């Protein structure tokens, strides 16, 4: 009926979302993953790794603003930030919006994804890789954390999902979070998969981090290109984004952020941390 090529994204073994593709921009099998850049009929350009949409032009701002700002605004003017993963450069872009940030180091394992981003995704990174405050390191984040002597104010974890044998698998373990705790003065945040399609994984990530940090909060957003809810876990021993009121979030955005936010403000903050009962019951059960 329709003359499209389709990207079929399996959300669980029993269901998929079909995205109509209007153009394949680039494709490469890297030593770490299958990287594919396409133009989707509904969402525009999209990066797909191992069959999973990482972000799309139409709504990447939802994911990236939700990942970065609740943690950074809850901390006391973070200066030194580490990003693990974050290939597209959009997490780096959001971190650099914080006036207090003096250095943002991004560690991604896959140079092919970075090359794709630099060449084809200017709307995502918006020149962030060339910002004098940025430093890009191509390395396995797991090894980087084992070897670094640096201490950071905040660590933002923007990795592919913890699927068996994926390069990110070890970066969702208790041992890894314990290593991170030793090198952060402020807090960490990680993307935590989808409460719609992998509630158990979301719950495991939340509860693993709760074994390591004192103040841990789960936030959720709806991302249309992912066709479901997406979750994040924010952790620190001292502060939690959930301690911020709507007005305080708006005040801090005004004082501390340079540039526009399209998704996150005091009102959105409130909705992100109002977790529906059925999800709360699962994640608080452990
Ligand atoms: N928004 C995403 C999602 O929905 O899952 C995550 C985006 S970002 C593209 C994921 C990045 O994690 C990729 O660029 C990938 O190369 C990187 N990555 C995976 N494993 C890694 C590791 N062990 N160390 C550093 N980067 C890693």
TrEMBL record:
Gene3D superfamilies, alphabetized: Spermidine synthase, tetramerisation domain, Vaccinia Virus protein VP39
Top enzyme class: transferase
GO biological process, one term: spermidine biosynthetic process
Active site annotation, chain numbering: 158
Positions with a binding annotation for S-methyl-5'-thioadenosine: 33, 108, 140-141, 167
Chemical reaction(s) catalysed: S-adenosyl 3-(methylsulfanyl)propylamine + putrescine = S-methyl-5'-thioadenosine + spermidine + H(+); S-adenosyl 3-(methylsulfanyl)propylamine + spermidine = thermospermine + S-methyl-5'-thioadenosine + H(+)
Tagged with keyword Methyltransferase: no
Residue ranges annotated for the PABS domain, each copy included: 4-237
Entry keyword set: Cytoplasm, Polyamine biosynthesis, Spermidine biosynthesis, Transferase
Domain of life from the UniProt record: Archaea
PROSITE patterns in the record: PABS_1, PABS_2
Binding site for spermidine: 64, 88
SUPFAM superfamilies linked to this entry: S-adenosyl-L-methionine-dependent methyltransferases (SSF53335)
Keyword Membrane: no
Assembly and binders: Homodimer or homotetramer.
Family as reported in the entry's similarity comment: Belongs to the spermidine/spermine synthase family.
Function, in words: Catalyzes the irreversible transfer of a propylamine group from the amino donor S-adenosylmethioninamine (decarboxy-AdoMet) to putrescine (1,4-diaminobutane) to yield spermidine.
Name assigned to this protein: Polyamine aminopropyltransferase
Species name: Sulfurisphaera javensis
